[in-house]
Amino acid sequence: MDRSHITSWLTDMDGVLVQENKALPGAAELLQQWRREDAPYLVLTNNSIFTARDLSARLRASGLIVPEERIWTSALATADFLAKQMPGGSVFVIGEAGMTTALHEAGFIMTETDPDYVVIGETRNYSFEAITKAIRLINTGSRFIATNPDATGPSADGVLPATGAISALITKATGRIPYVVGKPNPMMFRSALNRIGAHSETTAMIGDRMDTDVVAGIEAGLHTILTLTGISDEAAIQRYPFRPTEVISGVGELVHPRDGEARDAGGDAASPPAAPGADSDSDAAGSGE
Ligand SMILES: [Mg+2]
């Protein structure tokens, strides 16, 4: 598969780089390759519960070096979208630090009185009182926004109700559907491209889901790469009316051997990659967008 025209990268996080807080094979090496080559890239997640700083720390605990400015969440995409729509607007938020921090930094005012928007993000602390407030505000004219459509999220004990499930409750009570910014809305990818100054013709999107990553990548005009480490398999791909540009078994396939290593392929002469600490320092210093 020719991807020689690709200079910038967007990648999904869960099911591509990590699975249940464990780094997937090749993920550390791919991130290191992008740092070494100074490639523009962003790690994307539909989860709006955490800030980019939180996620950077969580990834680091899994052995993956991703500076916070290289992370793009549905909360950041939502704040970016709303700031363009209505600079300095007001919001009522159901969500956690990932959402409230993003909206504060984008210049929004939090209020329960006649807000421009009601924004629903991920939280583990839904309250009947807050949901009632959201419903009444939407009924009286506040615009209804949700960070992502996911109905459930994973946990060690089983599924958790997620943003899409709570939005559905509000939809049932108000008769209004939210505008959803996260995947599969290609808005999420467009704002990510803008963030790193990348262009769709020369950018690839790596994801593990046909119904979000791949379809949104196609609609945003990206080179799409489906990795089978997540929940899609070959049989599942056949059922969709669209196909990714390419299918790989894991992100390790995107790591090219470094000079001196390739020539010894098959042997055990490959030297270990440079210490991640050295790389991350230079990256953190160099990325000031
Ligand atoms: Mg995923």
UniProtKB/TrEMBL annotation:
<feature type="compositionally biased region" description="Low complexity">
    <location>
        <begin position="267"/>
        <end position="289"/>
    </location>
</feature>
<keyword id="KW-0460">Magnesium</keyword>
<keyword id="KW-0119">Carbohydrate metabolism</keyword>
<dbReference type="InterPro" id="IPR036412">
    <property type="entry name" value="HAD-like_sf"/>
</dbReference>
<dbReference type="GO" id="GO:0016791">
    <property type="term" value="F:phosphatase activity"/>
</dbReference>
<dbReference type="GO" id="GO:0005737">
    <property type="term" value="C:cytoplasm"/>
</dbReference>
<feature type="region of interest" description="Disordered">
    <location>
        <begin position="255"/>
        <end position="289"/>
    </location>
</feature>
<protein>
    <submittedName>
        <fullName>HAD-IIA family hydrolase</fullName>
    </submittedName>
</protein>
<dbReference type="GO" id="GO:0046872">
    <property type="term" value="F:metal ion binding"/>
</dbReference>
<keyword id="KW-0378">Hydrolase</keyword>
<keyword id="KW-0479">Metal-binding</keyword>
<feature type="compositionally biased region" description="Basic and acidic residues">
    <location>
        <begin position="255"/>
        <end position="266"/>
    </location>
</feature>
<dbReference type="Pfam" id="PF13242">
    <property type="entry name" value="Hydrolase_like"/>
</dbReference>
<dbReference type="Pfam" id="PF13344">
    <property type="entry name" value="Hydrolase_6"/>
</dbReference>
<dbReference type="InterPro" id="IPR006357">
    <property type="entry name" value="HAD-SF_hydro_IIA"/>
</dbReference>
<dbReference type="InterPro" id="IPR023214">
    <property type="entry name" value="HAD_sf"/>
</dbReference>
